[in-house]
Amino acid sequence: MDTQILREAFPPAATWTAQDVPDMTGKVCAVTGGYGGVGYHTTKALLARGAKVYVLARSESKFQSAIQRLAAENPPIVARPHFIPLDLASRTSPLDAARDLASRESRLDVLFCNAGVMVPPSGSLTDEGYDLQWATNVMGHWILTTALIPLLENVYDASGRAQKARVVHTSSSGHRFAPRGAVDWESLKPEGAGPPPKLGNWALYGQSKIGNILVANELDRRHGAKIISTSCNPGNLQTDLPRHLKQSIFIRLVGFIEPLLTYPAHLGALTQLYLGTAPDVAGGAYGIPWARIGDPREDAKDPETARKVWEWLERECRV
């Protein structure tokens, strides 16, 4: 078995914790899917260190529940996050969310591209016919991020070139399920524009997660002068992300071993918090549990594939 997989699946105890997040007073952060799982604990840690946090997500009722949970924590989180509607499976909603944020703020210090979907029912598509996992995990976040580049670059300009904004793309160890060469280009075509995809649901999920790494690296190549862009595997966690898997008979049969192989969600926030706030992080880094730097699959680091993915997104994501 690949030793890197073992390093990520069975990490040592964390030596960098949420208490190590530096003072974020005056910083503006945005967390997609910031009211649940890893996103909730990312939001919580940022608020505790003084950041102004925007949660970009679909459900305002879940956001309100998260606010109540924050207030009930011990110690309670007094600062309140702000809500902006975002549906990553839509090509227009990310632009609307970016415009909303730009109407409220002149800068964005850290963007956590945290939300995602994992192995939904086979054949799940967006209204435009794209694979739901690729559209949500890659396309929606790319549209949002590129629309927010002016706010992100303002951090560098306003600080007299002393600071760079950060963008953290939440990938997964599941990127190792991607097809050989990282991307099956035929599978990216919307329904009806090409042959039916030959990839199964797990391969499509892996493709979307390796897509996160490729986009992170290409963003760093194109905008690294003013933005630090990274990606990470948050870990094998006890969250609602794999909710569709829990409906399968196999998972029900072996579900009793899940607690032995997964970790609490608050640990999953550590790696992306580290990438988003620690002073010693370099652009293009790939974070692994807990708050360490590791290596993704070799083809995830290919600059030519990253360029091709970015150019595909430029063509397909025009609104």
From TrEMBL:
InterPro entries: NAD(P)-bd_dom_sf (IPR036291), SDR_fam (IPR002347)
Gene3D superfamilies found in the cross-reference section: NAD(P)-binding Rossmann-like Domain (3.40.50.720)
GO MF terms, alphabetically ordered: oxidoreductase activity
Keywords: NADP, Oxidoreductase
Pfam families: adh_short (PF00106)
Family of this protein: Belongs to the short-chain dehydrogenases/reductases (SDR) family.
Protein name (database record): SDR family NAD(P)-dependent oxidoreductase
Native organism: Naganishia liquefaciens
Source species taxonomy: Eukaryota, Fungi, Dikarya, Basidiomycota, Agaricomycotina
